Amino acid sequence: MSTRRSPWLTFVSIGVYIFLYAPILVLILFSFNASRTNVTFEGVITQFGPNPPANTSLVTQSACGPFHWFCVLFNNREVVAAARNTLTIALISTICSTIIGTMAALALQRYSFPFKGFSELSLYIPIVIPEIVMGIGILVLFSAVFRFLNGALGLDGDQRLGLGLWTVIISHIAFSVPFVTLVVRARLHGFDKAVEEAAMDLGANEWITFWRVTLPIITPGVLSGGLLAFTLSLDDFVITFFTNGPGSTTLPIYVYGLLRRIITPEVNALSTVWILLVLVVLMISQYLQSREAT
Amino acid sequence: MLAKLRDKDARRGLLLITPTMLWMIGLLIIPLILVVITSFGQRDPNGNVIYTFTLENYIRLAGISAEGFDPLYLNILTGSLLLAFQTTALVILIGYPLAYFVARAPLKQRNLLLFLILVPLWTNFVIRIYAWIMLLRKTGVINSLLGWLLGLVGIQFTPFDMYPSSGAVLVGMIYEFLPFMILPMYTSLEKIDPALYEAAADLGANAISTFFRVTLPLSAPGMVAGTILVFIPVMGTFIVSDILGGRTEILVGNLIQRQFLDARDPAFGSAASIILMVMTLAVTIFYARRFGFGDEVIAP
Amino acid sequence: MPEFAVELRNVSKRFPGPSGEIVTAVNNVNMQIKDGEFFSMLGPSGCGKTTSLRMIAGFELPTDGDVLIHGKPMGQTPPYQRPVNTVFQNYALFPHMTIGQNVAFGLEMKGVPKSEIATRVTEVLAMVRLPNFEKRRTRQMSGGQQQRVALARALVNRPEVLLLDEPLGALDQKLRKEMQLELKTLQREVGITFVFVTHDQEEALTMSDRIAVMSGGVALQIGTANEIYERPNCKFVADFIGEMSFLEGKVTSQNGAVVTVDLEGGLTVQATTDDKLTNGQAVSVAVRPEKMHLKDISLPADANRFIGHVENVVYIGTDTHYAVKLKGGQKLRVREQNDHPGSQPLAQQGDEVTVRFAASAARALTE
């Protein structure tokens, strides 16, 4: 390809990058805002000192200095609870979806069995239907199930079964599994079966062959799939929106709720922390990928 | 089929795929069937569903009632379609130069450039929309900046009323989905054999001809894959319009969302969801028939 | 009766093909591989040689017939319970293990004590001339080295039979020749039965004690290199091994091993055969180029003599090849050695020459 690069192209490209990053940079900047109302930027909090009372609109000093809003954030019980929920949901759903997704990938890539076509098709469904349809579908299902269970078990009032942490986890597994399966299958594609035959030739039965040879070799792919599932779960809004209940608020839901109320720089601080975490995870994933390539 | 089950391999395959199938059937297929069933139901005073068979939800969506024809819901549907097409078109226009730029960049820079595109993508959806509120509102960053700049030259500036508005929704959508279009386009541009450009030049094509006759057609699979990745979500979106559009901007997604939360009419909401899904599938299938799925891009 | 190391008794393998039809990869094959011999299965791709090897290893099970190893029928025994080991075509080394771990794997599976494993691994790596390679990783090694690791990994287990599936295919010419010699020497040292699969006839002829020539799932001929080269039993084997010229005709009479065949253009040729042929039967008379002469050397009185025209002369240094066309349109390739200093071609293009060969040099083959 010609190495002559049109200056127009570079100019436009830089413009698009600015478009992509301006909002993010603004977000980060405002997390140091001295103005509590966060309407305009009133400068960075520079002085260290005791926190001003909650009704002052201009924060001139803080125990945490410029990181005032980050401290407020970490002391916010709701945020901490939401963060804990988000992580719990992500961890459990990732572990489950990675295990069953890998199993599914092995099944689809190596064996033929009745209804195989149907299985493959059903794994594509979450990708081609709008998320909201999947969300309300699951909501309708849970509503009907809970209505039935509550009636059958005679539960009432506070005892009633309803939406909560577990309904969210189950739903997250549902949308993660197709992606894990896709990623692991892609990895299995280039897998040289001769290595498994070699193991059996040398005396390993099928089970030992799987643990000592197959699994170690596909592990990078499984980890990739797991990472993807983890990120999808952390980030999810729509499905969680329709399946969460009291006590199972996640961070994205929490932020959404905040947006309808007063917006303080605390939200920005949360955003900044989030962006930094994403950066770290992405860099780890890049590092892992580059190691695999050698 | 039973004979096949005696086959050790088939048994093993079935066993391995069963947990996944439990999830897919239980949380995908059965819910969808339930939604279809519910769409033919009615609403009881508590907001619960009465499972019966009636077409009144669909009739209501079509705008036909005792008082005559009310295109309210049809307008919402067409509004969503329009937004989806606009977003897709603009995202292709804005994203293509960047995809091209990265595809032509030297190998060492490419990884960094791609990484830079991924970072906003992985940042949470909700947070990114909030950022646009900060940018677009009357007292937001853009207006403040413009006011300050023009103030330097002594011009009085009335801030633009950009938020909430349908324009804000479009900008938000474009921002959300730009990376989803850039990445597949980049992949298919990157796959073009450099020798083809030399061949075109050898045969007398200048830069513009080469672009329209070689580059553009060969990067089409990327655009196709990207379109599918953008069109479907935009059709079903409700958050962007909810936050950036204010109460006046209603898309199908918002309609559905409200039926399930505020108005508590799951039957009507289900009917709307079915219509949404059918419309989306129809456009996708029509599109895929004509242009393919862009699998060449997705399968490396 | 001494047991054969490996025996295939009426072995067939059939499986469903891509469009639902039945593919017969191996068709009623019988083979008896002797203890301690270097046995090759030779043939073009798709002839069934690899499938046969895999049935010995246990990766495929015969549809009909039996596989026996040292007299014991293998039946449905899985590969990990068979006393054989395989060297795979692309080596199939475990990428996530060191060389030492790769080689030790089979011993681990058998439950050999750790100290003994270490000694045997060191021993076998020295034997394949990769001493102290235990800690290295497969990625750092060349094709030739990887091949030797694959060999070591199989041999360390002291299998009753060693199976090799075209192990030299991925190596360049020079390395191949070296490895052929090494393998042969190794086999003599270790004394294990080697069953070697290849499509390269030169390789098979060089290394093997006996060869099975296969085509279309059938073992056409099994014998020593000499037997197969000098007395091929059918046209395919005759054509596949080395170079051969064919004269098509019909039998007119047979006297013991000598048969008279009528050719196109009124020519007659005397050939030998191991079969009982009938008059009028169509045969192909096969003659090796080096057994035909343009020079007037001494031959028995009843030797064949044909007059023909030289169509082409190719000088290769060690010998010269002449393409000769006979009266009936038949084409022969004659090879004469350039064994005198300053040898010149015996004839030019267009010259009339006499092609001579003994009846015993011509084999009458029926198919």
Whole-number total of structural domains of chain B:
1
What is the fold-level CATH name, i.e. the topology of chain B?
MetI-like fold
Which oligomeric form is depicted?
heterotrimer
Order of helices and strands of chain B: HHEEHEEHHHHHHHHHHHH
Distance between the termini of chain A: 26 Å
Q: Indicate the CATH architecture of the largest domain in chain A.
A: Orthogonal Bundle
Number of domains of chain A: 2
Q: Which CATH top level class of chain B fits? A: Mainly Alpha
The number of strands of chain B is 4
Share of helix of chain B, binned: over 70%
Binned strand content of chain B: under 5%
pLDDT < 50 stretches of chain B: none
> Could you give the order of strands across the largest sheet of chain B?
1-2
Number of helices of chain A: 11
Biggest chain contact: A-B, 87 and 89 residues
How would you characterize this protein structure?
The complex is a heterotrimer of chains A (294), B (300) and C (367). By secondary structure, chain A is mainly α. Chain A has helices spanning 7-30, 68-75, 77-110, 116-128, 131-153, 165-189, 194-201, 206-235, 238-243, 251-259, 265-293; strands spanning 47-48, 61-62. In chain A, 71% of the residues lie in helices and 1% in strands. The radius of gyration of chain A is 25 Å and the shape is globular. Chain B has a single domain, classed as MetI-like (MetI-like fold, Orthogonal Bundle), CATH 1.10.3720. In chain B, helix 2 (8-39) crosses helix 14 and helix 8 (166-190) packs antiparallel against helix 11 (220-236). The relative contact order of chain B is 0.13. Chain C is an alpha+beta fold. Chain C has helices at 49-57, 99-110, 114-127, 143-155, 173-190, 201-207, 225-230, 235-240; strands at residues 6-16, 22-33, 38-42, 64-69, 72-73, 84-87, 161-165, 193-198, 210-215, 218-223, 245-255, 258-263, 268-272, 282-287, 304-315, 319-326, 331-337, 352-357, 362-365. In chain C, the strands form 4 sheets. A 6-stranded mixed β-sheet of chain C has the order 6-7-8-3-9-10, with helices on both faces. Chain C is elongated. In chain C, 41% of the residues are buried. Chains in contact: A-B, A-C. At the A-B interface, helix 1, helix 3, helix 4, helix 5 and helix 6 of A face helix 2, helix 4, helix 5, helix 6 and helix 8 of B.
